[in-house]
Amino acid sequence: MPTKKIHPDLASVLLTETQIARRVNALGRELKKLYGDEEITIVTIMNGALLFTADLIRAIDNPVRIDCIRTTSYGAGTESHGAPKLVHGLTLDMNGRHVLLLDDILDTGKTLSLISDMIRGVHPASLRVCVLLDKKARRVVPFEADLVGFQIPDKFVVGYGLDFAERYRNLKMIGVLKPETQKA
Ligand code: IMP
Ligand code: MG
After folding, report:
1. Is residue 98 part of a domain?
2. Considering every ligand atom, which ligand is closest to the CA of 70?
3. What was the pLDDT predicted at 159?
4. What CATH number is attached to the domain comprising 69?
């Protein structure tokens, strides 16, 4: 049953559990069209893309291999500090594979451009990028994803994998935090 109750720390709900589920399933259908029955090597950026990845891979029936990587994050704020760094890199071979890079949100573009360049350097057969959310207004580095779940306004959001100081990742919906909670 979809959760109707809004978390007390949220000022508003941007995307409901149902809206997210529908869109993730639609992305699965788009992926199926792009990849046919090919095996897909998924590179997913922890921790934000955890829930998105779990749902998206169950929306396709392709054989998948999954590699989880980790970049430095926001820490306990809502603004990223400087250049992202890779803190846990690839463990699977990417050479000659169809690689699909997944992240929760495309914001400044710094993380995904860094990771895409790194993957391109290990010679995949193809590389596509899929993000659940895209905050176009915030872009600092020119970067576009091949598949986008939702375009969203320039607001700091949490839920469905996205955190504030590592909290709220387990919310089923995506919402905007109350300003007083963002300072806590
Ligand atoms: P970028 O390198 O600025 O594009 O940042 C991407 C990363 O910043 C994402 O993988 C998220 O972890 C984080 N991020 C960006 N915007 C938000 C947000 O609104 N809520 C939570 N995390 C965010
Ligand atoms: Mg992230």
Report:
1. yes
2. 2
3. 98
4. 3.40.50.2020
> Do residues 104 and 85 touch, judged by C-beta distance below 8 A?
no
Name the domain count of the chain: 1
Q: Where are the alpha helices (DSSP H) in the chain?
A: 17-35, 50-57, 110-120, 179-183
User: Is 6 among the domain residues?
Assistant: no
Name all residues whose Cβ lies below 6 A of ligand 1: 45, 48, 73-74, 80, 84, 103-111, 156-158, 162-163
Q: How many CB atoms lie within 10 A of CB 150?
A: 16
The single-letter DSSP state of residue 178 is: P
**Enclosing domain of residue 134:** 17-152
Give catalytic status of residue 107 as yes or no: yes
What's the whole-number average pLDDT of the chain?
A: 94
The pLDDT of 98-111, averaged and rounded, is: 97
Tell me, yes or no, whether 91 lies in a domain.
yes
181 pLDDT exceeds 90? no
User: 11-45 burial string, b = 16+ CB within 10 Å, else e?
Assistant: eebbbbbebbeeebeebbeebeebbeeeebbbbbb
pLDDT of residue 1: 63
Q: How much is the pTM? A: 0.94
